[in-house]
Amino acid sequence: MASPSRFLDTMALFTQPGSAKQMNHEVRILFHEIVDLSPQERQRVYRERRIGQDVRAEVESLLNFDSTAAGSLGDLVASAADDLLNSGGLERTYCGPYRLVRLLGSGGMGAVFLAERTDGEIQQKVAVKLLRADGHRPVWRERFLRERQMLASLNHPSIVHVIDAGHTEDGRPYLVMEYVEGVPIDVYAAGISVRERLRLFARMCDGVSHAHRRLIIHRDLKPSNILVDSSGHPKLLDFGIARLLDETGEATQTLERLLTPNYASPEQLAGTAQTTATDVYSLGAVLYKLLVGVAPREKVADTPNAEVTSPSSVNADVPKDIDFIVRKALRAEPEERYLSVDEFASDIRAALGWRPVKARSGDLGYRARRFLRRYWVPLTAAGLVLASLSAGLYIANRERAIAERRFLDVRQLANKLFDIDAQVAQLQGSAKTRQLVVDTSLDYLRRVSANVRMDPALALELGGAYMRVARVQGVNISANLGQTDQAEQNERQAQALIDSVLASQPTNRVALLRSAQIAHDRMILAGDGNRNADALQLGQKAEERLEQYLKLANFSETSDRNESQQTIIAYINVGNRYRLANRYDDAVRMCERAIDLARSTNWPHQAGAALMVVALAHRERGDLDEALKAVHEAVRILEPQAGQDTKSRRITFALALAREGQILGEDDAISLGRTREAVEYLQRSFQIGDEIAAHDPNDFQSNFSSHATEARLAAILRHTDPRRAVQLYDDSLQRLARTKDHAGYRRNQAAVLIASVYPLLRLGQRAEAKKRLDTAFEILRQLKLYPAKQIELGSTGDLGLRALAGYETANGNLRRASEIYTELSEGITAAKPKPETNLQDAVALSNLYRAAAPACRQAGLASQARTFETRRLALWQAWSAKYPNRAFVRRQLEAARL
Predict the structure, then answer these.
(1) Which residue of 68, 302, 577, 822 lies most exposed, with the fewest beta carbons within 10 A?
(2) Complete domains list, the chain, with CATH
């Protein structure tokens, strides 16, 4: 706190009468002019103006106040002014309809007051900036009016905005602005973390950039001109010495040194031309103050162009990248600073996001240019001699050395960083760490790819690394981040690199395996994106490459054990793609190949995964006994034993349990109809997946797998426990919301909303059912999946129309329900399904006929009802002729005859 005597000294500026009045006026003017100058510059002003000892002592007394202390000069003056205003000690002053309440601050040209509107129109607190009563100098008045016009042209959340303007009765101009109830940015920053300071600073940069885009440079950026309000948002104030970039004439050298030396750029101190780079320097000085606690020139007052101490050496919490950013912003040469404030802020945000910063890559070049400027004559001579003697040899050796070093670096990245990821992926809550692995890897890979001449060995390593990055991002064969678009982009990059290797080395064994893996990964991505034709084509390419690779592979070698596992996985997933394309023989053939490889190379876990695909292929051919046998063996093999309970192992085991549940009793699907047993298996599968997802909400695979199992479980329970089914569907929607980056998120969301309609109708909650249907159809419209002339069986559009027809039936609108069923039947027919060869299509179409016939009959449309019933019966008669001994087909035929 200030002492009582100094408080009285300050109050004397306002209260002393008589003979001291003239001296107080001189003290006030001088104080405002030198308050922001360094001690050396203040002494120079005293000498040049021949300031007397009395005035000098008075000013120095005021200058001893600390601007950031609790009892600062500004606080005392404001408090004193407030007391005087409230007591009537000062004449109450008005600016138009605004009454000045108390002083907020003052500077060389004027003062800023808290004011309130008094004309009765609205109640509003504002800040009024008023030109000083003695501000008769034309240059001050002109600058004040110019600031007023500049502020009026700006509109940004980080810049204080203009509310009104005018002139007082004695002709003084004033400016009415929003009142910011806050503290200077350096005071606010002292109470938050370094990362929060950087985010705050970046937001403030956005306001400065807004001014620059309107050709306005501030020229006095300092902490006291940037307030942070109660919500933590920065507000830029005081454009008193700002200028337009296109102004001409004497714009930088004035009689009044109104700028603040500790934050002024070298060109401002020198009085030379100023540009947006001027504000970049001041912003750099502000950032330094926020990070270190003092302005950079306070550290090197005697040598203003000297390089300041790195912030991280003073504050250990400051990231190293920030040292380079600050150094670039504070460079003495304007052309060496950031080209714009946007570029400055972009580097700050890059550092916050662990991305590469431009300042770091450009630092070496800057230092080299500085060195060359100092020693350009001898260096030029030496360079010419050296270039003439050894340029060719040097370049060749350099390229070879870089390529070899990069080859080793990339191999180390692949063998260590991704091995770390494989371990991290087994841990709960690892998604953010895996994202860091991805970002770090991609940054390095891009720089390597751009900076060296490619040879086959390096291209092979890079291709493998890009493939592994893509798998972490979003290839749904293991725990991933659900970033399918980014994964596809990096798989294409990997493919281009591997193709370049095979072009020169067509029998390169590892390149053939990588080519097969990349085609396999892109097949998975295409399938997840519902691009089935592309997926099948890529699967065929993967099989072709696998066969070429196996002719060269020798799995007896210990070093090839990992390659054998990768080969098995590729065979399994290609087999599954063949299954989805109804090529069941090819699917079983591929999986049997995988099982043989798994047994010969001691990968029993992979054999269990292959058996799951075999089980599904048998199921979709109606051979449920063989399907159950295969999946039961898969569950036995995949159940984790002691010491094997890893995250990936549990995920695969949960999937096998879900598959057995589907075969036992999936609702309205190819199953044995043993729903009670099915519920047990699905519930157990869901619990495992839910436990994994609960530990890592950002893990896409565990959330998506749990959603799928939960939806199947709810579909069965809707018939016996609709309330529980609705709860499961709602939980599934929340789980899906964590997979928003996945290409199929919106389509899956619509499917769950549609499925939840059935149990809601059973509970009598028709309004909620209609609300969900409306939301689902809006999603389908946005995805351009409905309305459509062709409707694929089992698509979200098909499911939505069935649920809508069910809703109309529940509401007694039987004719409308019949119309919907007819529309759906025609749309499905136009899509050319294959119910005569695809058992899943047959079941889906049969379910449609089964629901449509009674609705039509109750609506009085007997002919249409008979048509649906006849089609259903004919469908199962054809399948019975094809598979006369399969129990599932017999059950469907018997049901159709009822």
Answers:
(1) 302
(2) 1-67 (no CATH), 194-251+262-365 (1.10.510.10), 404-552 (1.25.40), 786-897 (1.25.40)
